[in-house]
Amino acid sequence: MGKDRSGLFEPGVREYASRLEHYTRFELVELPEASGKKLKPGDAKTAEAEVILGRLKPQDWLVAMDERGKQLDSVELSRYLAKAQTGAKDLLFVIGGDEGLDESVRQAAHLTLSLSRMTLPHRLARLVLIEQIYRAFTIIKGEPYHK
Ligand SMILES: C[S@@+](CC[C@H](N)C(=O)[O-])C[C@H]1O[C@@H](n2cnc3c(N)ncnc32)[C@H](O)[C@@H]1O
């Protein structure tokens, strides 16, 4: 959720997005956050959830990013990606806005994934996640990036 124009993390995200193009079709979708629109936090999350779930297609595996989710190591994440490839699934990783993700998004998720038990700003979570997706593809290909 939300655009990243901070200049802090976005160059790194762009770099990994361009590296990922060698391995897969990758699209970064920045949906407008509802939290700045004078809605109560709960209402903002519900509004954002409707937009997120409205984009879900039958072939998608939704991965809800949440610090309370399951923790995988990089090799385990690479196996998850490989399994999605084998099953011809599109992975839709969703990072929440300031208020986090609505329960309905977590309920609809194929996997709720934690990057750590610590709360990260969502723009930093985006950078960490995309690096891990890139790393996972290099693991699948047996390339030396992951040591
Ligand atoms: C600022 S955090 C929201 C925190 C919110 N208070 C909550 O309880 O979810 C914004 C988003 O970044 C992502 N995020 C932050 N820390 C994370 C972590 N450790 N693991 C996975 N995702 C994380 C999640 O998608 C979260 O919805």
TrEMBL record:
One GO cellular component, as annotated: cytoplasm
Amino acids binding S-adenosyl-L-methionine: G96, L115, S116, R117, M118, T119, L120
MF (Gene Ontology): rRNA (pseudouridine-N3-)-methyltransferase activity
The protein's Enzyme Commission number: 2.1.1.177
Pfam families, per the entry: SPOUT_MTase
Keyword S-adenosyl-L-methionine: yes
Keyword GTP-binding on entry: no
Similarity comment: Belongs to the RNA methyltransferase RlmH family.
Subunit structure and binding partners: Homodimer.
Protein name: Ribosomal RNA large subunit methyltransferase H
Organism: Hyalangium minutum
Lineage per the UniProt record: Bacteria, Pseudomonadati, Myxococcota, Myxococcia, Myxococcales
